[in-house]
């Protein structure tokens, strides 16, 4: 049972009242091992200064030092002491002052000993509960320290830091280094490793990493490590000549762990800005967080500093004209070199013009939206492509690095070029097929010409001529002649029409020119062709 050696100090200038309380209360039954009595406030205060007292029972009206004054001084010595005040006067002001001072309870004379016993039982129950809570509090000091440092790196105003100072004093933290910094160590490939190794093996390896990180941190004058599932936040303090030397010291000591674990975990270390006050660590933490965002732009680097990368990024300028229309023009020309140069310029406009992955996605969305519009306009959009675009922009972590965006854009543009070629080929075939149908339907018209056919297709005669030659491997004029001669052959074999009529029906206004063309095509005159097949 907690506090079996509970001590009570009884104070009253009335000897009879003191004796009555001493003999009327069953102290042993309450678990009280010691009851000491004095008869004035000064003696009581001296006793309190040299002895542990858990319960103070004091009269209010005493010569020299009143019970109220004694209570105030007792609480200053021991804030956890429980005070029961006694008075012969039924005055509300006494009760009000007793409550204001923090007295546990207030009773009047003559004393009802049963009532006093009830009050003592309540006092003892509260003391035991507080003792139990104190034990819990002592055991939870590590958790309180962790909560302190988490609040420290996230708080952002002086008022909250003043509250944290009280916790630092309670936790007995020595926060007197000249410089402080926050490091955010992240295992970028943790999800892949968990799937590959399994949770148990991954956790074992993560513990190895944690051991190495804590070992390095312990070499500094001050350190505290906060751990999440895949991240370490290291708060480090050092007494050193300059911020430059401090940063060099940090990198040199963490270099070995970075080299050892980087290839295994995709380890990356975000370095915050150095501060000369522990109460300004929130800014260091924020810059360490910002530094990690730049891994998207610089995946090959292990140590990342937001300020240094921002300075580097400001020197990176866009190359050439990177408007979306220039990209579309390159795709239309199927100019892969031009497409590659455009993507290179687009990618290298970061991080100079952007300082976060969200902004990169925003600009990427603009480019992709133009590509989608282009595909819809030419009817080369596929459900698979639509699905891929939707997935990417609903999963912001799809691209782990900016290099992945570059590769994806290049592959996408190559696919669009391929689809465009297939679409153009189909379009050309369609044009030629339409031309063939038009010729087949209108070959009997002696005025039928290349210009008329091109006008029907709404393209230029030269373009139609070139296109027909490429698709059919035959001049369009040759195809028209072949169509007319084939039709004439059928009329010669299946009718008794005269040559003049036949020549007119197949589009020749001159019978002799028809005969010349027929002989050139078949090697026979129309009359000879008819006679030969009639004999058969």
TrEMBL record:
One of its GO terms (biological process) is phosphorelay signal transduction system. Coiled coil: none annotated. It comes from the Bacteria. Residues 7-124 form the Response regulatory domain. SMART domains: HTH_ARAC, REC. GO terms for molecular function: DNA-binding transcription factor activity; sequence-specific DNA binding. Keywords: DNA-binding, Phosphoprotein, Transcription, Transcription regulation. SUPFAM superfamilies: CheY-like, Homeodomain-like. Pfam families: GGDEF_2 (PF17853), HTH_18 (PF12833), Response_reg (PF00072). Residues 433-532 form the HTH araC/xylS-type domain. InterPro entries: CdaR_GGDEF, CheY-like_superfamily, Homeodomain-like_sf, HTH_AraC, HTH_AraC-typ_CS, Sig_transdc_resp-reg_receiver. The modification 4-aspartylphosphate is found at residue 59. May play the central regulatory role in sporulation. It may be an element of the effector pathway responsible for the activation of sporulation genes in response to nutritional stress. Spo0A may act in concert with spo0H (a sigma factor) to control the expression of some genes that are critical to the sporulation process. This is Stage 0 sporulation protein A homolog. It comes from Marvinbryantia formatexigens DSM 14469.
